[in-house]
Amino acid sequence: MKPPVIELPDGTRVPILYEDRSVLAIDKPTGWMLAPATWKNTSRNLQRELMISIQCGEYWARSRNLKFVRYIHRLDAETSGVLLLGKSAGAVSALSELFESRLMGKKYLAVVHGIPKETSWVCRLGISEEPGAKGQMRVDERHGKEAETAFHVLERGQDKALVEAAPRTGRTHQIRVHLAAAGHPVLGDSLYGGRGRDLALRAIELSYTDPFQKRPVRILAPTEEFRRRFQFATTR
Known about the structure:
Layout: E1 5-7, E2 13-19, E3 23-28, H1 46-55, H2 59-62, E4 70-71, E5 80-86, H3 89-100, E6 105-113, E7 120-123, E8 127-129, E9 137-139, E10 149-156, E11 160-167, H4 174-181, E12 201-209, E13 216-220, H5 224-229
Parallel strand pairs: 5-12
Antiparallel strand pairs: 1-2, 2-3, 3-5, 4-5, 6-11, 6-12, 7-10, 8-9, 10-11, 12-13
């Protein structure tokens, strides 16, 4: 029987959300980077730990006859939620094309400072790297790369709100930059003006047409614990 959880060498347990012949979708825990496997000394390198686990013949991989997995897209280190892994180089290439051609539907939950005035809005501000600040981005309407995110307020709290974000493009820190530009940075996002310890951002859905089977796929991550942690209703 194939276990529904990956246990990494350090004991971290990673739930498997979805699986077919081409891909494996996991619920990425916070604090793990998706660094290239060549960065051997990078702490908390999820790609590297997955490959070590496979090479060691751990049961979750052995039961699936897995020899290879690689991330198809990236999530920030402190962002949790749906992460899609390819089981072959061909799967990585084919699914990557869906992200690049904007045929991959993506949804996130974010808890933001303050209450947005609008219930729904779309941000199309361009994004570029912040000069002199490695790893940080900024709004750049003149020279920035095209970026588009749709936002919808799901619930209002006391000086905070639960927002659903659907990015159409995939720029680095796109949701975080666009929310900060709206005057509502994500809780815990110290790079862009958010206060708090934990980054309140979770990838909750991927939807696409499987390029091999030509059928619709919708992958969901649980939201109850995230909502509860930031004091929002869990039944909506």
